[in-house]
Automatic annotation (TrEMBL):
Family statement drawn from the similarity comment of this UniProt entry: Belongs to the PPR family. PCMP-E subfamily.
GO BP annotation list: mRNA modification
NCBIfam families: PPR (TIGR00756)
Database matches in InterPro entries: E_motif, PPR_At4g14850-like_plant, PPR_rpt, TPR-like_helical_dom_sf
Full protein name: Chlororespiratory reduction 4
GO CC, alphabetical: cytoplasm
Length: 609
């Protein structure tokens, strides 16, 4: 920018041209040039100019302009107060406080309030409301209660606006009891008071309490926000959908949020016919409506219905594309998910977001196509997506499932700021590839770096130890989880431990662990144990377990197949025929095994019956 390009307008002695010139700045260097010129001409000492600059740019989205405006405020309006009138007027202070309370550094709003009081600047209701907003954003309950005390002491308690701000603060900080105390002591309440409390109850799952308040609320104070909060709250509960519908029918006026909330409630509880009935009679739909319906059909496995709706849409956004792709992936239509992504890239002119790419990586992982995995990785790098979040986790997982643990490790090592999710993904990949020692070494690295592991970390390491026959390491990992990290073992952890012990031939120890588990073992744990019994020729124990499994999960084919194989390995052909006959009578079919091989860029699928 050329600072002197508009010299004919004399910006150094006139306020409006100076403001215009500052507004056209593109970099902090441009601002510094103008600042220097204002200092040398002495125009910077004009309080009207600095006031206008503060009001115009304190909340600017360009950080260098906001910083400049705030610096002028502190230099010319805080450190050197020029007039008594300026001391008495909190207007400019409130503008700067607002820039912080609504901006990236809300804690500075609290510091400014302290400065106001130190400088004798009167604090009005707007100053206090802005600081309460900052406290609610930061979750500062203690500081918020101090402001609450100041409100009472200063005599501003009677102000309805401030009372509503206090309710909002306590609700945002999860202190519903405090919020209700403020509400109950209010001499007068408006729609905002009621709506804040009702919304707080709904978001905390206390829909009954919200309903009681809704019933007490004067009808003339109920507005769209009130009705929508109640409908949204009841619609999320299976036993509340019909109550939500009753409220929906009683509403004097409905908007898109009302319709979408009701449809979303039906969808969440699998009532797609009811959802479709509302969808068909809606006076107007938005992309959220379509996305809810597509997502609902996808979750119920009705991908063709989802695609039919998707094709009917007049306009699509990224969220709708994500819903369609997610539906395909959930139902194992992985190639179709990639086709939707390709269509989005080539024909819709939409840019994918992080969620889009995570879904695409999941589809490629399930297909096991390494060449496609490498292409997508290059695409992510080219588009400069960060790998510090879930995208990096998905990339590691994809390479592991596509058979290249080397690529997965390179991605992992290239991520600077790793979360425990990245470590878990890498440990899981090493487990799948049978690299138990490397997975266990990663656990040791986590310990050395003082990273806090979670229950998924230990499932991954125990699984890796199981696949690699590392009994000692598995036992150590289990004890480390329980004793050092105080993580209560879940069903998956016990399942891995049973597998570790049973695979190693410690059948009796595995059996004891199952019997001593504080959780009821599921059929997966019993089948794991049964497989080991068969492998280690523990016929009597295995037969008892198999019969127990058939009684417990009578229509799972693997239990019958394991028992049949056990009889066959002992030459008990009569019993083999009996088991096979039972399967035929119950119409139980053995699930085929499935594997993929990529050859010359094409994936070939093989079924083994």
């Amino acid at each position: 920018m050329l600072v002197f390009a508009h010299c004919q307008h004399h910006p150094w002695s006139s306020i409006s041209p100076t403001i215009h010139l500052l507004g056209s700045c593109k970099t902090s260097e441009d601002v510094k040039k103008i600042h220097s010129r204002l200092i040398t001409t002495g125009f910077i000492k004009n309080p009207n100019l600095t006031t206008r600059i503060v009001l115009a740019f304190a909340s600017s989205r360009r950080p260098f302009l906001a910083q400049f405006a705030r610096c002028l405020f502190h230099e010319y309006h805080v450190r050197s107060v020029s007039t008594v009138e300026e001391v008495k007027d909190p207007f400019l202070w409130n503008a700067v406080i607002k820039s912080h309370s609504h901006g990236v550094d809300p804690i500075k709003a609290l510091f400014l309030l302290c400065l106001m009081l130190e400088n004798g600047v009167p604090v009005d209701k707007f100053s206090l409301s802005l600081v309460l907003k900052a406290c609610s954003r930061l979750g500062f309950v203690k500081e918020g209660t101090q402001i609450h005390g100041f409100v009472i002491k200063s005599g501003a308690w009677a102000d309805l606006f401030l009372q509503n701000c206090l309710i909002g603060l306590y609700i945002k900080c999860g202190c519903l009891g405090f919020a209700r105390q403020v509400f109950d002591r209010m001499p007068q309440r408006d729609s905002v008071s009621y709506n804040s409390m009702i919304d707080g109850y709904v978001k905390c799952g206390l829909v009954e309490s919200a309903g009681e308040l809704f019933d007490l609320m004067p009808r003339e104070k109920k507005n769209l926000i009130t009705w929508n909060s109640m409908i949204g709250g009841f619609a999320q509960r299976e036993d509340g959908v019909n109550v939500a519908l009753k409220l929906f029918d009683e509403m004097p006026v409905k908007d898109l949020i009302s319709w979408n909330s009701m449809i979303d409630g039906y969808v969440k509880h699998g009532r797609m016919e009811d959802a479709k009935g509302l969808f068909d009679v809606m006076p107007r739909r938005d992309v959220v409506t379509w996305a809810i319906m597509i997502d609902g059909y996808g979750k119920l496995g009705l991908v063709h219905e989802a695609k039919s709706l998707f094709d009917q849409m007049p306009h699509r956004d990224v969220v709708v594309y994500n819903s369609m792709m997610s539906g395909y992936v959930q139902n194992r239509y992985h190639m179709e998910a990639l086709e939707v992504f390709n269509h989005m890239e080539k024909e819709s002119h939409l840019s994918p977001d992080e969620t889009t790419l995570v879904i695409v990586l999941s589809a490629i992982a399930q297909l096991g196509r390494l060449s496609k995995a490498i292409d997508m990785h290059l695409y992510i790098v080219e588009k400069q997506f960060p790998l510090s979040g879930k995208l990096g986790v998905a990339l590691i997982d994809m390479y592991s499932k596509c058979g290249s643990i080397q690529h997965a490790m390179r991605v992992f090592e290239g991520i600077g700021s790793k979360s425990i999710d990245h470590w878990n993904a890498m440990i899981g990949g090493l487990a799948v590839h049978g690299l138990g020692e490397s997975a266990f070494d990663m656990l040791l690295q986590i310990e050395r770096r003082s990273i806090k592991p979670d229950h998924i970390t230990f499932v991954g390491v125990l699984n890796a130890c199981s696949h690699s026959g590392l009994v000692k390491e598995g036992l150590l990992c289990f004890e480390l989880m329980r004793r050092k990290h105080k993580i209560e073992p879940r069903l998956q952890h016990y399942g891995c431990m049973v597998d570790i012990l049973a695979r190693s031939g410690s059948i009796e120890l595995a059996k004891n662990l199952i019997e001593e588990m504080p959780i009821e073992p599921n059929d997966v744990i019993w089948r794991t144990f049964l497989t080991a019994c068969n492998h280690h020729k523990e016929f009597e124990t295995g037969e008892l377990v198999a019969k127990h499994l058939i009684l417990q999960a009578g229509y799972n084919p693997s239990s019958y197949v394991l028992l049949s194989n056990m009889y066959a390995s002992n030459g008990m052909w009569k019993d083999v025929r009996r088991v096979r006959t039972m399967m035929k009578e119950k119409k139980i079919e053995k699930l085929p095994g499935c594997s993929w091989i990529e050859l010359d860029g094409r994936v070939h699928e093989f079924l083994c019956r």
